[in-house]
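Notes from hallway chat w/ T.B., transcribed later so I don't forget. T.B. wanted the structure written out for a chain they're using in a teaching module, and asked if we could keep both sequence and structure tokens in one place. Agreed to drop them here.
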Amino acid sequence: MTLARRLSAEALGTALLLAMVVGSAIMANRLAGGNAALALLANSIASGAGLLALVLAFGDISGAHFNPALTLSQALQGKMDWREALPYASAQVLGAFAGVAAAHLMFGEPPITAASVARAGASLWLSEFLATFGLIAVIIGCSRKRPDLTPFAAAAYITSAYWFTASSSFANPALTLARMASNTIAGIRPGDVPAYIAAQLLGTIAATAIFNWLHRPARSAAKNSGSALSFGHD
């Protein structure tokens, strides 16, 4: 598959993912009648189910990363050329902003607006570290023995992480950047973005290092080890 096609798939897939995440957040907030738990339930189910569908649809084209954190993890593991990692991340970020704009237009909002929702503090930064750590850990762990189940496991984890983290689990630098352009319930104040992304990147690096060590084969079995991640691209 050519790089141009893979980048197009990453941009389109990430745009659709953000349209699902932001669109479902807006819809849930409007319909829940002030019930925050019901709104979060709807948003988490829509986001998890949407992620699964998109990974299954785009996985054979680009690996369906839709997330610079996953792209970084793939590059750190040597499963992706570093020269392709930056174009992948750039396509993901551009797609994410397009997805936010699409979600806004569907609900009668201006395409791009500066977010005002404050998301700062050590508890949220720890949440983003753990959310991203867990996502990368699940992908690495499942892909080594049950690669066909990796998309399902990742989607299930994201659905869960909406609930067990104080930040409702962004776990994605492209998603984080794009949501600063959404002055809705899904938004994040621009000044809060750098700390979120720093926590996500630290979680990515830590999970990649620890789970590659945990899954490292014995020397005698090394020659038989290691299928690529289902989210990766060979």
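Follow-up for T.B.: Helices lie at 3-31, 36-62, 68-76, 82-106, 122-145, 150-164, 173-179, 193-214. Might be a good example for the class.
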